[in-house]
Design a protein that fits this description.
With 256 residues, the protein is α+β, with helices and mostly antiparallel strands. It has a single domain, classed as Fumarylacetoacetate hydrolase, domain 2, CATH 3.90.850. Helices cover 22% and strands 31% of the residues. The chain has 5 helices and 15 strands. The strands form 3 sheets. Strands 1, 2, 3, 5, 7, 8, 9 and 13 form an 8-stranded mixed sheet that branches. It has a 5-stranded mixed sheet with strand order 4-15-14-10-11, with no helix packed on it. A two-stranded antiparallel ribbon has the order 6-12. A hairpin with a 2-residue loop joins strand 10 and strand 11. The longest helix has 19 residues. The chain is globular, with a radius of gyration of 18 Å.
Length: 256
Amino acid sequence: MTANTRSTEELAGLLAAAQRTIVPIEAHGAALTPADAAAAFDVQHRTLALLGQPIAGWKVGAKSVDGPILGAPLPADRRLSGGAALRRAAYPVLGLELEIAFRFGRIFEPFSGPYADDEVLEGLGSMLATIEVVSSRFARWPAVDPLAQLADMQNHGALVCGEAVPYTKGYPFLTPAVSFTFDGVDIVKGRVANPAGDPRRLLGWVVNHSVARGIAIGGDVVVTAGSYTGAHFPEGAGIAEGIIDGLPPVRLTILD
């Protein structure tokens, strides 16, 4: 076993154990921090394998309209239907973000070359509002190396999915009308905008990233594509409700 393979296995083991036990990782050592994004992606997939979880979704995002794109596969047991309830104690870190997600109307199979962005967009089938639960398996988050955060499913805790509607090409993805409340109080942070700009620009990346790893993508798989609202970190129990104009609302209850 090479040093890189060993560090991937060790970090994935720590992350999987932290997710099972809800006990954060206090320190993992610089030697286990992924050397680059490719190594972090290896950790993501190894963690899912150790948890015995299939991929039920992807999260993908960018910090600016022309910035680099990064993503993570999402485990099936953390994809929930709208109206779900989660216990606050199950998440040492718990943030809430309102996002637009997509499903494809076809399967993109692995093959020798990349899919063009136009082909990916033509394959869109539906879209939906989601609440992503932001979380971390690291006790010192957010003071954690970005590559370690990427390895940790890019700080993913759960994805709550509203009802899907047919994809609308002319939808105002740059400036949707949005409401996001927690127990009736507005929790939108600043201007409503996705930092990546139009979230559809991220979809070609996630399709080609998936198929390059030999993983087909499409069908029931949900791709959530970045927050319009910033993250809200509730201190206690309550009900989060997200409304994105033209999409069915999505709701999540946080229990003590």
